[in-house]
C-alpha cells in the first residue's frame, strides 16, 4: 500500500480508524482505512517510531559514506584539474 498522506483519524468502539490517501495515475485521490484495535495503538506507534529511527540511522550512515567517498573523488578531480561539473546530460550521452 502506498500512502501519500493521512486524511483523517478517529477512535470509535475501541478501534482507531486511520484514513490514508493516495493519488492514482489519473491524479485523483483515493482513500483507504487502517483499523487498529485501541489496545494495540501504543505498540503500533512505538513500532513506527523505532522503524523511522532505524531508517534515519541507515540514511545517516549512507550519507556519511557518500560524503567520505565524494571527498576522495573531489581530491582526485582537483588533482586532474578538469573543473567540469557532471550533469544528467552527461549520463544520457554516455548511455547512447
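-> sequence recovered:
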Amino acid at each position: 500500500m502506498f500512502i501519500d498522506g493521512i486524511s483523517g483519524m478517529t477512535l470509535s468502539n475501541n478501534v482507531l480508524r486511520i484514513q490514508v490517501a493516495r493519488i492514482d495515475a489519473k491524479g485523483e485521490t483515493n482513500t483507504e482505512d487502517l483499523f487498529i484495535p485501541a489496545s494495540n495503538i501504543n505498540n503500533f506507534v512505538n513500532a513506527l517510531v523505532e522503524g523511522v529511527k532505524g531508517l534515519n540511522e541507515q540514511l545517516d550512515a549512507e550519507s556519511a559514506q557518500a560524503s567520505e567517498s565524494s571527498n576522495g573523488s573531489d581530491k582526485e578531480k582537483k588533482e586532474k584539474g578538469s573543473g567540469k561539473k557532471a550533469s544528467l546530460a552527461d549520463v544520457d550521452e554516455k548511455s547512447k
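Residues 5-71 form a domain with the Nuclear Transport Factor 2; Chain: A, fold (CATH 3.10.450.700).
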